[in-house]
């Protein structure tokens, strides 16, 4: 910390004086305050032969026993950043040998990672668990259905959802899916804009066949009737039920905070909670799809999605407040470890035997990150699900 100041200022005498004063002041600071156990000491950063080590000072808290919650359902909602979140659940299940709820490899949706786009889990869209096992974790696309989720997952399952600011989700949906009922029917420079002037003119008959009719709510199990009626009281009832069922709803705009809360609620380790950003579209040209006044139109149309989003946005902030000041401290720590992870994983392929050692913290035991961990963090959903299928059933075709 002090060195660079000295080096940069050697050329002028005032600089030297300044640097000396500063370094004396800083060393006094360090001498006076006893080293605090909860502060990262950057001087402890060591590099050994062939290994990179990041050493943090040990903390004096007692070690946690492994009380990690293992039964989890993650509702993977389209175009919300859910692939990034899903990797956390895939990895947790993989590392703990959990039994996943999986669809048959060949299914009506044409993707081995989709349980259903129209309904909850059923005996025809879900494979039975391997002999002697029971389902423990679900994190593939499916519609939430309170009853049917509970027939496949244990009673003590923790439910996690995800929501994104609805208009951002809509733009991303247009950009990614280019739904035929909009793009084939409307021949104009900004089809999304034309669509929003009268959505019902273009929407499919049933909401479940649509990707733009309050789709987030629909994936959370909102009924056809409610999507049609948009009855206020019924919407509130739907939201209350969702709140009861889902212990945590990740808000994409507060992703890192959400994941830290998830880690705390599920008693997972910081290593379990790590993630690298996935599936982020780099070539966005939504200017071609919507106009500058369309956000308001969309708000009038997607009333249930907005009600849901606003409610769970506020609940997440409340939940975070309940965690106390310590949450922000851990958030900084988490962000730091995520940066270090991302830097390590960006080169770990070149130094396959290197390990990143992270010392214990106030919140976690020490852990090591190896190249194999990076491979899991980087693994695309499709490949991951295939490997889980092979491990679970001995075949990628079942
Ligand atoms: C998971 O299973 C593998 C092989 O079947 C085994 O080596 C490993 O120890 C298991 N891991 C856990 C956490 O049970
Ligand atoms: C939810 O699942 C139950 C049990 O599988 C089924 O009877 C019911 O029709 C489903 N509800 C909807 C709205 O699909
Ligand atoms: C997590 O662990 C704490 C104590 O370590 C415990 O009080 C809490 O019930 C656990 N949470 C869950 C959901 O099991
Ligand atoms: C985005 O779309 C607009 C309208 O079609 C077009 O004029 C513009 O060149 C596009 N920009 C990019 C970066 O493709």
TrEMBL record:
Determine if Glycoprotein is one of this entry's keywords. Answer: yes
Task: Give me the segments passing through the membrane.
Answer: 12-31
**Where does it primarily localize?**
Golgi
Q: Where is it located?
A: Golgi apparatus membrane
Q: How does it sit in the membrane?
A: Single-pass type II membrane protein
User: Which top-level group of life is the source organism from?
Assistant: Eukaryota
Q: Which UniProt keywords apply?
A: Glycoprotein, Golgi apparatus, Membrane, Signal-anchor, Transferase, Transmembrane, Transmembrane helix
Q: Which InterPro entries match?
A: Gal-3-0_sulfotransfrase, P-loop_NTPase
- Provide the family line: Belongs to the galactose-3-O-sulfotransferase family.
Q: Protein name, please?
A: G3ST1-like protein
| Organism field | Mya arenaria (Soft-shell clam)
Ranked from the top, the taxonomy reads: Eukaryota, Metazoa, Spiralia, Lophotrochozoa, Mollusca
């Amino acid at each position: 910390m002090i060195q660079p100041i000295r080096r940069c200022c050697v050329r002028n005498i005032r600089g030297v004086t300044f640097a000396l004063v500063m370094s004396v002041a800083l060393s006094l600071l360090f001498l006076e305050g006893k080293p605090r156990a909860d502060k990262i000491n950057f001087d402890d950063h060591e590099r050994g032969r062939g290994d990179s080590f990041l050493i943090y000072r040990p903390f004096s808290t007692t070690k946690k026993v492994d009380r990690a919650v293992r039964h989890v359902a993650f509702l993977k909602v389209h175009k919300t950043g859910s692939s990034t979140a899903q990797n956390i659940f895939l990895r947790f299940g993989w590392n703990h040998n959990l039994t996943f709820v999986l669809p048959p490899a060949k299914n009506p949706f044409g993707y081995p990672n989709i349980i259903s786009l129209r309904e909850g889990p059923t005996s025809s869209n879900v494979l039975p668990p391997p002999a002697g096992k029971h389902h423990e974790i679900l994190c593939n696309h499916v519609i939430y259905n309170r009853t049917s989720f509970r027939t496949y997952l244990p009673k003590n399952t923790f439910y996690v959802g995800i929501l994104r600011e609805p208009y951002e989700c809509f733009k991303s949906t247009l950009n990614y899916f280019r739904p035929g009922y909009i793009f084939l029917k409307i021949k104009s420079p900004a089809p999304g804009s034309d669509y929003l002037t009268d959505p019902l003119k273009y929407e499919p008959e049933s909401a479940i066949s649509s990707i733009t009719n309050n789709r987030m709510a629909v994936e959370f199990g909102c009924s056809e009737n409610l999507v049609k009626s948009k009855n206020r009281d019924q919407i509130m009832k739907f939201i209350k039920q969702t709140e009861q069922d889902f212990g945590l709803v990740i808000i994409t705009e507060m992703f890192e905070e959400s994941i830290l809360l998830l880690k705390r609620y599920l008693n997972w380790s910081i290593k379990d909670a790590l993630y690298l950003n996935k599936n982020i579209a780099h070539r966005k040209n939504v200017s071609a799809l919507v106009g500058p006044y369309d956000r308001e139109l969309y708000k009038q149309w997607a009333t249930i999605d907005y009600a849901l989003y606003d409610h769970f946005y506020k609940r997440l902030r409340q939940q975070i407040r309940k965690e106390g000041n310590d949450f922000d401290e851990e958030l900084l720590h988490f962000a730091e470890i995520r940066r270090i992870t991302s830097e390590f994983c960006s080169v770990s392929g070149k130094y396959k035997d290197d390990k990143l050692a992270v010392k214990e913290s106030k919140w976690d035991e020490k852990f090591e990150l190896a190249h194999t961990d990076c491979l899991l963090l980087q693994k695309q959903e499709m490949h991951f699900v295939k490997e889980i299928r092979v491990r679970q059933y001995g075949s990628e075709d079942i």
